[in-house]
């Protein structure tokens, strides 16, 4: 195991009605806050009203930045920075899915930066100071509520880029599983696929990190057990609670400590999203089985066989057969969540941009589990494009 410094300072309020702490939390770090939210789900399900009631009670003045897009746009981040400066905001509260939290994080950093926030995508070290971020998560998927990552897009340039700087890690997170009861089946499925992907990305590493991988297996089993239950019974509290806590732990760095992790499928998916604005978790689920089959060889088979046996309960003795059965089990899991299998099903009707998209993904694939070049990525896209035709 490699050396590491454990430092995950986000204070988490987990469970029903934890919003009751919002007033006291906000007052600890701010007088004026910016509320960052999406297209209106939080007004329909009453979370916005709950949050505002708390802020009014604690005499925190609040301003709104609404309309954050799934796959948040850099233009929206810029708007948020301008609002913070105009009103001398001293904390940013995100209420929504990962897109809102990511947008809030970059706003929190942009306020202290004289240049344009897009600069952070090439150099996250330009972030030297951030406003405190409070994340009220309403969709279990990205784990953004407890990590130092934000992913933003510039659709004019067909670019989607992650920014990682631990200064952006939320100071507080409110995780109320009942807030995810209204998440649609499609987003529930996408969220489960995203959590599972984060875990697989850590699991398939070249490091022999026994404990981290054993924890990842337990978390994967949690998603496999509760994903379909939440999908069928949206108001099943145990299912929503387990997914919520698993999503946070999948990516909050705990599994990464002592384990060299460089993700693969995420880089391949993010660039597709940049071109086609697809739902992140769905893109991952389409790509992952093809990625697995593409990199299957004598070196990787033992890892895939272990994945099949420990995560999916495959009893096959032969490693190669077990490995393929594991992939089949993963595909069956996606199928029971009605996740599309091909890129055509998410609206990608032509393979003409695959070379360019693959080229954009390559810089993010340094030192990953299995080396991939531009041609390899094109082959993976093509496999997802042809399957099911
Ligand atoms: O915009 P509203 O109206 O709120 O609706 C949203 C949105 O349409 C809806 N939703 C969220 N909570 C809901 C709800 N609808 C009903 N009830 C609720 N309780 O769900 C839709 C999708 O929301 P979004 O925030 O886009 O989804 P998600 O949480 O999956 O975030 C995706 C973004 O996060 C990035 C992705 O690339 C993508 O841009 N990621 C961020 C990561 C991070 N910060 O660590 C890591 C991930 O790997 C990922 O890349
Ligand atoms: Zn993800």
Topology:
Blueprint: E1 11-14, H1 22-29, E2 32-37, H2 41-44, H3 47-57, E3 61-65, H4 74-87, E4 91-96, H5 98-110, E5 133-137, E6 149-154, E7 159-164, E8 172-175, H6 185-203, H7 210-232, H8 237-251, H9 265-276, H10 280-294, H11 301-312, H12 319-336, H13 354-361, H14 374-386
Parallel strand pairs: 1-8, 2-3, 2-4, 4-5, 5-8
Antiparallel strand pairs: 6-7
Describe the structure in your own words.
With 389 residues, the chain is an alpha/beta fold. It has 2 domains: 11-180, Rossmann fold (3-Layer(aba) Sandwich); 185-385, Dehydroquinate synthase-like, alpha domain (Up-down Bundle). It contains 14 helices and 8 strands. The chain has helices at 22-29, 41-44, 47-57, 74-87, 98-110, 185-203, 210-232, 237-251, 265-276, 280-294, 301-312, 319-336, 354-361, 374-386, and strands at 11-14, 32-37, 61-65, 91-96, 133-137, 149-154, 159-164, 172-175. The strands form 2 sheets. The protein has a 6-stranded parallel beta sheet, sandwiched between helices. Strands 6-7 form a two-stranded antiparallel sheet. Strand 6 (149-154) and strand 7 (159-164) form a beta hairpin. Helix 6 runs antiparallel to helix 7, helix 6 runs parallel beside helix 8 (237-251) and helix 13 packs across helix 14. The longest helix is centred in the middle third of the chain and has 23 residues, at 210-232. The N and C termini lie far apart (45 Å). 52% of the residues are buried. The mean pLDDT is 96. Residues 142, 194, 197-198, 266, 280 line the site of zinc ion.
């Amino acid at each position: 195991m490699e050396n590491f410094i454990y430092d995950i300072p986000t204070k988490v309020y987990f469970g029903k009605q934890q919003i009751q702490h919002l007033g006291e939390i906000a007052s600890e770090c701010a007088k004026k806050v910016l509320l960052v939210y999406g297209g209106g789900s939080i007004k329909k399900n009453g979370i916005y009203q709950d949050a505002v009631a708390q802020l009014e009670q604690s005499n925190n003045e609040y301003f709104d930045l609404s309309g954050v897009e799934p796959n948040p746009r850099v233009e929206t981040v810029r708007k948020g920075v301008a609002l913070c400066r105009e009103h001398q905001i001293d904390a940013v509260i995100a209420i929504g899915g990962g897109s809102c939290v990511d947008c809030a994080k970059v706003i929190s950093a942009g306020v202290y930066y004289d240049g344009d926030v897009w600069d952070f995508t090439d150099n996250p070290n330009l972030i030297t100071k951030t406003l405190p971020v409070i994340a009220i998560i309403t969709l279990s998927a990205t784990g953004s509520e407890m990590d130092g990552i934000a992913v933003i897009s510039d659709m004019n340039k067909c670019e989607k880029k992650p920014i990682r700087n631990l200064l952006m890690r939320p100071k507080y997170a409110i995780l109320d599983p009942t807030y995810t009861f209204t998440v649609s089946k499609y987003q529930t499925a996408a969220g489960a696929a995203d959590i599972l992907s984060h875990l697989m990305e850590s699991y398939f590493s070249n490091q022999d990190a026994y404990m981290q991988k054993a924890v990842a297996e337990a978390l994967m089993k949690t998603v496999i057990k509760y994903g379909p239950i939440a999908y069928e019974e949206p108001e099943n509290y145990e299912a929503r609670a387990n997914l919520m806590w698993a999503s946070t732990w999948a990516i909050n760095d705990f599994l990464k400590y002592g384990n060299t992790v460089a993700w693969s499928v995420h880089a391949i998916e993010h660039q597709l999203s940049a071109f086609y604005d697809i739902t992140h978790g769905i893109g991952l689920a389409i790509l992952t089985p093809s990625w697995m089959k593409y990199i299957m060889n004598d070196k990787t088979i033992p890892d895939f066989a272990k994945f099949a046996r420990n995560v999916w309960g495959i009893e096959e003795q032969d490693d190669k057969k077990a490995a393929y059965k594991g992939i089949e089990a993963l595909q069956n899991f996606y199928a029971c969540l009605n996740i599309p299998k091909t890129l055509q099903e998410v609206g990608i009707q032509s393979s003409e941009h695959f070379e360019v998209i693959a080229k954009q993904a390559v810089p993010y694939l340094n030192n990953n589990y299995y080396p991939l070049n531009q041609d390899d990525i094109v082959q993976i896209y093509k496999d997802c494009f042809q399957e099911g035709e």
